[in-house]
Design brief:
The protein is of the alpha+beta class. The chain folds into three domains: 54 residues, Structural Genomics Hypothetical 15.5 Kd Protein In mrcA-pckA Intergenic Region, Chain A (Roll); 99 residues, Alpha-Beta Plaits (2-Layer Sandwich); 79 residues, Alpha-L RNA-binding motif (Alpha-Beta Plaits), CATH 3.30.70.1560. Helix content is 26%, strand content 26%. The protein contains seven helices and 13 strands. Strands 5, 6, 7, 8, 9, 10, 11, 12 and 13 form a nine-stranded mixed β-sheet that branches. A four-stranded antiparallel β-sheet has the order 2-1-3-4. α1 packs across α2. The two termini are 22 Å apart.
Length: 247
């Protein structure tokens, strides 16, 4: 987890304030002053202090939410350009300041997790867990069998990176377009769009349906928000444990 994000969540400060505190040398990690906001820490192992006071998630009341994000909103809590953010959608509905786990592009809809639990967020985002994320997409053109096979075996992106194998299901052909369901186990920036771009197809519509066992159930309407239940959190923990056993 980035030191900046940890500071935001535990000290309850803005991103700008977190950057300022770090650059001023007021934050230490394991007794060493760190002035880089992008510095990676492990909340379970590292000791972080702000002006001598230890910061920890243990002293913070934790909240967990699922949002069905509409298109037209950027996945951040504040935008200096004044664009609409997910915080604008939820600020009057949440009990404390929470933060998005990962990102969805401005024009992408669907499931977004928001929490102030940095350890939980780190487990979702950490690449070692390879948590499956399922999407519905509409792309230009009709996918060929060869292209579907490439998606299932791993696509070489334009930057040379080869993606992990994806699960792909054709839902329907819409004239000169294809509606598909695709599940990936990594989260590179704009990965699905770049996968189809490498195959010569433009993504016209994209919606995230699930992250592991968490789905849009109960928030089917775009823009709707609800808390994650204790049972769902337990189910997620079991899901992670099973992933670790399988890897």
């Amino acid at each position: 987890m980035k030191l900046q994000k940890f500071l935001q969540m535990t000290a309850k400060v803005s991103r700008r304030k977190a950057d300022q505190l770090i650059s001023q040398g007021k934050v230490q990690v394991n007794g060493e002053i760190i002035k880089e906001y992008w510095y990676d820490i492990d909340p379970n192992k590292d000791t972080v202090t702000l002006e001598g006071k230890e910061l920890s998630f243990k002293s913070v009341r934790l909240y967990y939410y699922l949002l069905n994000k509409p298109a037209g909103y950027i996945t951040t809590m504040f935008d200096p350009q004044g664009r609409s953010t997910v915080w604008d959608l939820i600020k009057d509905k949440v009990k404390d300041r929470v933060y998005p786990v990962g990102r969805l592009d401005k024009d992408t809809e669907g499931l977004l997790i928001l929490t102030n639990d940095g350890i939980f967020a780190n487990r979702i985002m950490h690449p070692k867990y390879k948590i499956p994320k399922k999407y519905e997409a509409v792309v230009e053109g009709i996918l060929t069998r060869k292209e579907i096979l490439e998606l299932r075996n791993g696509v070489i992106l334009n930057d040379g990176y080869k993606t992990l194998p994806a699960k792909v299901k054709i839902l329907e052909k819409l004239g000169t377009k294809t509606r598909i369901e695709i599940e990936i186990r990594e989260g590179k920036k704009r990965q699905i769009k770049n996968m189809f771009k490498a195959l010569g197809h433009k993504v016209l519509y994209l919606k995230r349906l699930s992250i592991g066992p968490l789905t849009l159930k109960g928030i089917e309407r775009v823009g709707k928000l609800r808390e994650i239940t204790k049972e769902e959190l337990k189910k997620f923990d079991r899901f992670i444990e099973n992933l670790n056993e399988d890897q």
